[in-house]
Amino acid sequence: MHKTALTAEEEAYQFIQQQIRLGRFAPGSRLVPETIAGQIGTSRMPVRGALRRLASEGLVEIRANRGAVVRGLNRQEMLEVFEMRSVLEGLAMRNAVSQMAPEHIRRLAGMLDLMEQDYLDWTTAHREFHEYLCGFCNQPRLLGQIAELHSVVEPYMRLWSAQPGRGRRARASHQELIEALKTGEPAQCEAAMRQHVLNTVPVLLDSLT
Fold first, then answer.
1. pLDDT tens column, 125-143
2. Residue 10, CB half-sphere, CA atoms under 13 Å: how many?
3. pLDDT digits (tens, 9 = 90+) for 7-19
């Protein structure tokens, strides 16, 4: 069964995005359509379409003299992304809390326990925690914007997560989100999430200098 152009482009998009998120395609590295097409068993055209899509999302930059390269973030851009995340995820948590039952909050506590297990990919587990929490807002457009911002900074989060002592700091900050959810107060939840996201900025920027 032959792949349609649409499914082939989507497959290429998913593959390239994952490689960037996992840090396997590092910032500044060239993305050669022929090479990627060979890796996933498709033609160049779907890969080119996927690269244009990723460029529109800020993960890839298409340059006249070099073709497509993985786009890195400077300090100002990093700050901007986290400021946007703080506002959007704060809104998502504000709207999510009224839809959450005690068992959902208990599941978040369990996810927090799992984030400390060495056999798990911490960065992926961290993203799943945030996605599960924010998902209760039931606002697909908002969640789509948040997902794009997570993808942009995920390679840098992976570098930060490898630092000694990260787990203890991360657990305490995520526990504060759970405590805010237990109050059931939308404004308190929004404020807690905003502060949670912004608190990451100084330590993340320090780890990249």
1. 899 999 999 999 999 999 9
2. 5
3. 889 999 999 998 9
Model confidence pLDDT, tens digit, residues 20-69: 888 888 888 899 999 999 999 999 999 999 999 999 888 899 987 778 99
Q: Last residue of a domain, which of 19, 41, 70?
A: 70
**CATH no. for residue 173?**
1.20.120.530
Q: Is the dihedral of CA 176, 182, 190, 82 positive or negative?
A: positive
Number of structural domains the chain divides into: 2
Dihedral, 176, 182, 188, 190 alpha carbons, nearest 10: 70
The whole-angstrom separation of Cα 100 and Cα 97 is 5
Residue range of the domain that includes 29: 8-70
Q: How far apart are CA 51 and CA 12, in angstroms?
A: 8
Residues 6+ apart with CB under 8 A from 155: 20, 21, 22, 23, 26, 27
pTM above 0.85, yes or no: no
For residues 48 and 87, state if they share a domain. no
pLDDT at 187 over 60: yes
